[in-house]
Amino acid sequence: MTPAYTQVLYAACGVLLLSAVGVLWRRDLSALVRLLAVQGSALALVAAVQAAHTGSIELAVVAVIVAVLKAVVLPRILRRVLAREDQPREVRPLVNVAASLLAAGGLTLAAYAAARPLIRLDPTPASRAAPAALAVVLVAFFTLATRRRALSQIVAVLMVDNGIAAVAFLTAAGVPLIVELGVTADVLLAVLVLHILAGRLHASTGGTDLDDLRELRD
Amino acid sequence: MPDPTPLLYAPIVLPALAALAYAVFGWRTWTAWAGVATTGAQLTAAVALAPRLLDGTARATAGGLLRADALTGYLLLVISAVAVIATWASVGHIRLERAAGRTDAADARRYGVLVHAFLAAMGAAALADNLGLMWVALEATTVITAFLVGHRRDRRGLEAAWKYVVLCSAGIAMAFLGTVCMYAAALHAGGHGTTALNWTFLLGHAHTLDPGVVRLAAGLAVLGFGTKAGLAPVHAWLPDAHSQAPAPVSALMSGVLLSVAFTAILRYKIITDQVLGPAYLRALLIAAALASLAVAALLLIAQRDIKRMLAYSSIEHMGLAALAAAIGGRLAAAALLLHILGHGLAKSVAFTGAGQILQTTGTSRIADIRGLIARRPALAGTFGFAIAALAGLPPFPLFASELGIARSGASAGLGWALAAALAALLVIFAALARHTFTMLLGVAPPRHSPDVVAPVGTRASGAVAPLVLALTAAAVLGTVLGPLHPLLNAAATIVGAH
């Protein structure tokens, strides 16, 4: 039982991290949405495996919510943002792809260093995978800082959230259900707000390049 | 002592009902005043709750999800006092915006719904015992106010709203990661389920929490909630959002939302100091405080926009709050709390005043607002006094609080940090004084094109009344704390405990 549990868990964490790095690699915005759906499924798998391992019904419910929301609903909302795009590519990221991938490697190493207290606290097979989840958070932050399309930024914000959720599943078998529900509602609403703002942006500038928004400065 | 349970629901239920009322009935004269009445009722409830929180124990309800101690009670007072000013000023604000054709019925309805939903979320953030739910409520304030920030739908509004949602959501996500770490530490210390994230549980079990994990959690919490509290270097969204939001909303965002977010840092700090001692967060907070003061000073010198000027002044005051928190101890804690109140009152007056100036002159450029004393003497006077209050002049509370911060800092051996802060404060004082004199004095420019100037006759009569009332309250509280004294003391004991 245990080896299979560990293997599935580690495979899912690998997919989590790879999909975050994939966002840096691919410039095609539709690929970003697909990667987000893949990452959402991997996150749901992490939750499901942890639920099976700990026998927690609460966590099983969370796994189902995560699967529906992050693998289906949120990517679907983003596809509607994508449908408006005339030029669905990230043309000029602030940092080019090769340097971004190198940075992702460095951030992953940093995540391993930062996660040491969490592993020391409770050295289980699950918490040993926490650095991968933390690396997702850091790589997603890097994406947020260097990508200039509205959709890329929404994907990055969602990946930050996915990474944090994964840290929670791995180190504490998920946050309490009521907190999880509240966070989920906030994330869903934030994405809907950004969806509407991206629509207005498209209507007013004819594109969703955030470099067009440079009026407010001192 | 009577059961205070219903009073704990008031800060959430009353504004939620008001939001519902706006959704159903829209923005009319009577609903606008009903909104003011609700915030008045909130203030009354906060005043009624306060005396029951003085004995050092917390009152809880809703299965322990809501909890009020003296710090909560104090924060609820500040929230509701500023809410009264903001909703009262909204009556005239929306009337003028409608008259000028910048707002239609649907916009006004949405304004009413969102402002009161925003108040409910802040009430929930103040009352949540569970650190996870406190986070949820704070993130909800971002989502709710996004459309208020972007209400004008032009490119500037859009830019501000986008930055606001993306930067605040991503920033506060760091705080959620901190919450997760704290939860892991709490589970390890024997906590179970939802209660493991309760502040009261964490404080009670501080000695069993793992120091390494708490260090990680506290650092992330300061960074995350610091973003929401507008501390440099994670303040980039603030000047844009506060300058683009409607003036009464800016008053709420600047006057209380920053302080509510800052209180989240305080809650983490109280636990962290028990586990790690005060040195760790002191270093982080001093760095954030001095960076905030420096940013505010540098960007205030050549500031051209009246609302951005006020926004940078908020960064300054959050920097001072962070400095007080870094110093620690009861005197610094009392100064910090007084500072939050004084800033809330003065900044909400300044922002709503700036909104009326904008509606009078049609411009937010400092250089174009000249001779305000000749055109609107009452408005110019209140705005001038509000700036004096923000600059820390007596008899306003910020004078006493800044003195308190200086005294406690000196006795804590942080003279170097105080000296750096004082240098920034002098620059800020000079900048604020120069900009304000430019606006108030001088020869009034010829009238702007009639379409941007609010037509004569639609001036909201009595629009200055809430501002004068708030300034008077601030001046009185800056001189004698009166009945507020025991609550401030009790709250300072919680914050300043070592």
Describe the structure.
- The complex is a heterodimer of chains A (218) and B (498).
- Chain A has 218 residues and is mainly α.
- Helix content of chain A is 78%, strand content 0%.
- Chain A has helices at 2-25, 29-54, 57-83, 97-114, 116-121, 130-146, 150-172, 177-205.
- The longest helix of chain A is centred in the last third of the chain and has 29 residues, at 177-205.
- Chain A starts with a helix and ends in a 13-residue tail after the last helix.
- A two-stranded antiparallel sheet of chain B has the order 1-2.
- Chain B is globular and about 70 Å long.
- Chain B is mostly helical and 498 residues long.
- Chain B has 19 helices and 2 strands.
General shape of chain B: globular
Order of helices and strands of chain A: HHHHHHHH
Low-pLDDT segments, ≥5 res of chain B: 449-458
Largest sheet of chain B: 2 strands, antiparallel
Which key features would you list for this structure?
heterodimer; A: 218 residues; mainly alpha; 78% helix; globular; B: 498 residues; 2 strands; 75% helix; 1% strand
